[in-house]
Amino acid sequence: MTWEPQQDGLNQIITLLKQSQSTDNAIQRAVQMKLEELNQYPDFNNYLIYVLTKLKSQDEPTRSLSGLILKNNIRIHGTQLQPAIIEYIKQECLMALGDPSPLIRATVGILITTIANKGSLQTWPELLPTLCDMLDSQEYSVCEGAFGALQKICEDSADTLDSAALNRPLNIMIPKFLQFFRHSSPKIRSHAIACINQFIINRTQALMLHIDTFIENLFHLSSDEDREVRKNVCRGLVMLLEVRMDRLMPHMNNIIEYMLIRTQDPDETALEACEFWLSLAEQTICKEVLTPHLPRLAPVLVRGMRYSDIDIIILKGDVEEDEMIPDREEDIKPRFHKSRTHTQKAGAMMGGCAQDMGARAMEGNDDEEDMDDVYDDMDDDSNLSDWNLRKCSAAALDVLANVFKDDFLPILLPILKETLFHQDWQIKESGILALGAIAEGCMNGMIPHLPELIPFLISCLSDKKALVRAITCWTLSRYAHWVVSQPHDQYLKPLMEELLKRILDANKRVQEAACSAFATLEEEACTELVPYLGFILKTLVFAFGKYQHKNLLILYDAIGTLADSVGHHLNKPEYINMLMPPLIQKWNMLKDEDKDLFPLLECLSSVATALQSGFLPYCEPVYRRCISLIQQTLNQDLASTASPGQYELPDKDFMIVALDLLSGLAEGLDGQIESLVVSSNIMELLYQCMQDSMPEVRQSSFALLGDLTKACFVHVHPYIGDFLPILGQNLNPEQISVCNNATWAIGEISIKLREDTKPYIPLVLAQLIEIINNPNTPKTLLENTAITIGRLGLVCPLEVAPSLQQFVRQWCSSLRNIRDNEEKDSAFRGMCQMITVNPVGVVADFIFFCDAAASWMNPKSDLHEMLQKILHGFKTQVGDENWARFVEQFPPQLSERLAVMYSI
How far are the Cα atoms of 45, 294, 308, 594, 662 from residue 711, in angstroms, in the given order? Predict the structure, then answer.
């Protein structure tokens, strides 16, 4: 296709492109409107590609901008563009890939990738062969331009490139890329490695065939002069460690030596190399191969934890007092709400936070916090790149401390001694960070040093450098568990006093670190904090008037965690009068569409649960607003589904957080919530939420259904016929938290419905039995499933008992670990009823029943009698001789426990 521009049109577009580089917002807006208007003309895009590829009289930034506007047009309107225009753009792109300007080549590469992604590589069959041919060009700019485009395609379409639909082009591309590892230009060498690196993690067959050549070439380039090449070599080796350890093993010593040097590079290569230690720590051979190198690696990692001079400038580390400076909106990270999950408390932990089922273990998955999250939160600053050498070094030291445990300490202690007491604050700060990083892995070995170290750290909380005060908060939070286990006057009280002062620090970063550390301390100390509540609340409430936007959101979190930790001890008039007015004032100021409602609603949910009847004076407006948030979200969802494009999709987090706060109210107010429920359409809304497509909405609505069932079943009862089939459909363990809450709600409903549960048993029993027998079911879900099966057996023993043999062993194993509570009580009564109906069903697994019966601390007297009757009945049934043989299988402490508890 040949196309020539009109001079007028060209001039108009060049003027626009120049204007769009203006910093004036009004001009920017006018340009935006004009661009949208021009999009009505099909050949507008021809002008844009013409400016990018042909108009060499213009400066490079203007030409590049023309290409980026075209890229957006293709991304948004690509499918509506005429085929002839797309063809013209493709042809011009391929011709311009060899442009002398690196900026123009890069822009054309981005454009090619966008077209390939939009229309799929299948609709542009000549693209890959053409790019591969261009690699052989004698002209550097043509080869480099083609490689730049190929690298972007490999990054965006790694999976597609390995598909049969495209005839597996990688079989040709990978050997081709390997030829360029020894090219004279560092840029080309770098592109070649970056392209192949995209195919390591998926173990792409075409690469695996050439894996030895690839590794050999990587080793050859390891001493390359060029920074980008070395960075890509490190990146490749880190991925190979996960995928082809077998091939690296013979060279492991040299690789470790190499990575030790690279981790000390003065540029970004150091970060790529540092990832190697994180990756190696996950491999089983870590201890064996790394032990001889630890004495050299540890100091390198601790050095890598120092703030660089650039970091300090970016973090304004020299500004000590900034509490009066308002936050910029872009510095506030989006928060994600975690929906309520109902969990059991383990029986082994007597005392402590003895909250029951309502306890919010916020995630159904029993996963540890992700390492990246721990260290990202440590220096939470959106000015610093999210993941840097400091964070990576700290995370690496942490995982290695978990691998080597206390054997690491003879190497670490001298380094800590040298850094912690150093005159230079940057070195001291890195030592405090290192001390926090090893807390989890080396805790046992650190205990003898803590009586000296904790007071030292508490004194560092008043260091004159804000960055030292901030990291000290974080490190102390990592030792909170030990602090709480010691006599209070010695460490907990002084730590609490100093941390509360830091919550009111004049530096915003310190305020934030102190608030987060205090929340961790609250979780560890639980009701041990009750004697200090007045003092704590006074500080937190004072912070309300002092904090800027970002820290206010973290303060809500600290208050919510406090409420979760001390529970009903917060329900005292003097505490309520301190805490509620500032919370309600913020609540009244926030608009319904303001996302700051999330952390505030989460906080109020915990406070309502803790205050119980103390929340009554505040509950009506809070309840009404939650109902209104749910209604608005549902309406907007309906509108956007009915007319897509006309109404935007709602942010369902508003609905999820509102459902969770209603759960908190139901749990806290119990029967007193009835007057609010009766005068609202909450049941109709709940029915809609329970069928929402988003799992988190269903998860929270099932939690609320269970809480309302407990608080005011009379209003739930009429809807049971609609609700129970939905609960049955959600018993899918692939969505753990949804399944968990649905299971729990079924159990709560059955307790209230009693024998009327009978028609619903077929809807749920088979799935519950499947879940309890699935070896991958997490602990939380197992326990809730066992309790619900027990409750169904309690109310409908004749319907459930025939299946006893299918679940009794798993049932007993799941419930032996939870502490005595109402739910365990009702479940065991159900089990006793089922055994009475179907004694044969328990015979094969009777030893498990004995073990479960022994897990009670103090069962109620009538339950004790039921358990004793079953045990003695079994003994009588089998006869003394068989019983004696049976008891021989018991571990000694089980025999003792049964003798003491049940006289058997």
Answer: 63, 58, 56, 30, 12
* Residue 538 neighbours by CB distance under 10 Å: 12
At 127-184, the pLDDT tens digits run 888 888 888 888 898 899 999 999 998 888 887 887 777 778 888 889 989 989 988 8
512: nearest Cα among 520, 523, 503: 503
Cα gap 112→98, rounded to integer Å: 13
In this structure, the number of other CB atoms found within 10 A of the CB of residue 29 comes to 10
Backbone angles phi, psi at 699, to 5 degrees: -55, -50
| 347, 665, 673, 702 from 623: Cα distances, Å | 35, 8, 9, 18
pLDDT, tens digit, 9 for 90 and up, residues 271-323: 999 999 999 998 999 999 999 999 999 999 999 999 988 888 888 767 778 78
Q: Name residues whose C-beta falls within 8 Å of residue 494's C-beta, 6 or more positions apart in sequence.
A: 455, 458
Tokens of 298: 């540890």
Task: Phi first, then psi: give them for residue 186, nearest 5 degrees.
Answer: -60, -35
pTM: predicted TM-score of the whole model, two decimal places: 0.78
**For residues 780, 784, 785 and 790, what is the CA-based torsion angle, rounded to 10 degrees?**
150
**Closest to 752 in 3D by CA, of 723, 785, 791:** 791
pLDDT in tens, 777-833: 999 999 999 999 999 999 999 999 999 999 999 999 999 888 889 999 999 999 999
Alpha-carbon dihedral sign for residues 441, 443, 448, 449: positive
- Within 10 angstroms of residue 534's Cβ, the number of other Cβ atoms is 11
What is residue 422's three-state secondary structure? coil
Phi, psi of 360 (to 5 degrees): -95, 85
DSSP per residue, 138-177: SSHHHHHHHHHHHHHHHHH-HHHHT-GGGT-THHHHHHHH
Phi, psi of 819 (to 5 degrees): -75, 160
- Do 34 and 13 contact (CB within 8 A), yes or no? no
